[in-house]
Give the backbone structure.
Amino acid sequence: MERIILHSDINSFYANVECLYHPEIRNLPVAVGGNPEKRHGIILAKNQKAKEAGVKTGEVLWQARGKCPELVVMPPNYQLYLRFSRLARKIYNRYSDQVEPFGLDEAWLDVTNSAQIHGSGRVIAEKISRDIQDELGITVSIGVSWNKIFAKFGSDYQKPNAITVITRDNYKKIVWQQEVGDLLYVGRSTKKKLIKYGIYTIGQLAQTSLDFLVLQFGKMGAVLWRFANGQDDSPVKSFDEHYNGNERILKSIGNSITTPRDLKDLQDVKLIIYMLTESVAMRLRETGCYCLTVAIHVRNKELHSFTRQVKLAKPSDLTREIAEAAIALFENNYDFSSDIRSMGVRVTDLVPDSTPIQLDLFSNEIIRVRQARLDETVDQLRKRFGNLALRRAVTIGDQMSGLDPKKDHIIHPIGYF
Amino acid sequence: MAIKKFVQVIAKFEEDGKIIPLKVLWEDGRVFIIDRVLDMRPGVSLKVGGQGIRYTCRIQNKEVCLYYEEPKWFVEGKEKS
């Protein structure tokens, strides 16, 4: 039986939620942007009016204001967006138990088995669209197809508040005519490469020989070819709402931050690394894992960035070990030729914390055990009194010391694979 | 323009988790008894900007929309002139 897959995309999610809550700005061009004083001053989302004026997501606020002087910029309110995202998901769950969220504002639904109850794909899409509009006051674009890729394509094809049905009869007319860059997972550089070989549309990609694509792009070539031909058969993964979006196996845990001011010396960097590591290590312990590798990410004020990683001698979840590894890594790889704008700490190669650890003769394991007990106590105190209740001395007495990456961290869209 | 008016509400919590508002306490001390809840469903107030459970109530023979936007209750109030 042919599957019926829906992809629902909330139109200008953040901006439209803000418009709903602020009737007075509903008819103005609105964007949601970060705080320029904290140097997060870029456009996160914009409504239709702002889009028409040429405002783009990711732009710096002053650039956007240049294009559209009357632009209203609202600060983001993630709690509110999370709430709407949850409510939207509840509506999807009325029509299927197989709902796979893709970021906060998008989701795939497999409604193959509910078609008997609720009607065809288009009918279900119409019902969802109406429910969301009535109950949440925002609009969605929905794509209906027999695979996830074309469903996603359909939801991007017409905006806002539209339903696009892509069937085996019309996909050549709708999908194949479009630019190859519109296909999921054809990014800027893949597109450039494809154009070099004379592949401009999705149809051309679909008709290119599979062997040629594999030769040029490796296994991604085969994947893209299958995507373009509508042969993607990946299932819609059902999602357990009590499990916070990471139902896939965790591969790494990381935090990063763009600091309110540039980091000029090792002192600053240490402060930030400790702060980030506190959060990362705490999350690591919460998931019950040890890490084997620590990685750092550094971006300087010219926006050049690099990452470096190092293997630990022993699997660890100790804040101090991870932070010291990160600092050593930094010292070995950066010379402060330019000030630093943003930093990240990430741990990977996760193993369960029940894994036996090979001890050695010369190191003092008692210290590590005591360190672990200390971390555990600190975690408990923070759980009861807040993440800023207990802090490292290095992080005190600086304007950046009030940052709390653990609490502020937000779920990002997860990759397709 | 209408304003979002948060109000005090006396409500009944039923065994199955349903919440039924019974009275609205106005800021000037008046108490409005809800004669009947005509409809309850998730809904938005486009007029004042809000989203929650919308109770369409009959109060003194008038239909009023009362919203439960967790954890607060509001009505679409008239602006004082």
User: Anything to note?
Assistant: The mean pLDDT of chain B is 91. The first strand of chain B starts at residue 3 and ends at 13. The beta strands of chain B are 3-13, 19-25, 31-33, 36-45, 50-59, 62-69, 72-77.
